[in-house]
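From the shared-data thread, chain only:
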Amino acid sequence: MTSLFGLGRDAKTFRPRKSTPVGSKGLTLKRHIEATLGSGNIREAVQLPPGEDLNEWLAVNTVDFYNAISVLFGTLEEFCTASSCPVMSAGPKYEYLWADGVKVKKPTRLSAPEYINNLFDWIESQMDDARIFPQQYGIPFPPNFTDVVRTMFKRLFRVYAHIYHTHFRSICSLGEEAHLNTCFKHFMYFTQAFNLVDSKELVPLQELIDQMVS
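Structure, as tokens:
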């Protein structure tokens, strides 16, 4: 059975990875991310490199964070089903309703896998739209780009919250807990560095965040 990123599931269960945006500049920034992450200092790795454009930095990192969480969720396909997770939740106190403002305008209760797959479809549609995520260096980002990124991060956080609250035992059985924790820690350092998720949204995992990011 083929493994992907060290995770023990067949690669055919995973969504195709999204490509790095903004052309050669995006690849340069991606190499910077990989180099600084390799140093082991996550707090330093998330900082905007001197002289670089904030929107380009947000774009490249957003694609990477999306790829990471989509791979992780792909390993849980057999555990996160409409019957086992009939609502998208983070423990008994927090339930998330789906709306994208286009196809679904009224917040709607969905099972967790439906919610997450709709979310991934929505994120990919934004990333595939060159008016939002330019594919060539020098093409301007839209004025509301930061708002788009903040919405993505808020919703991606909910996927982490669901995984930790509902599927952590399965994550451990698959031997993925270290990878999950590393991905989430990186995600939270970046989120905090650029104020991408409101504090009230973080409450379902606040205790974990306080332990990881101090």
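The CA atoms of residues 21 and 59 lie 7 Å apart.
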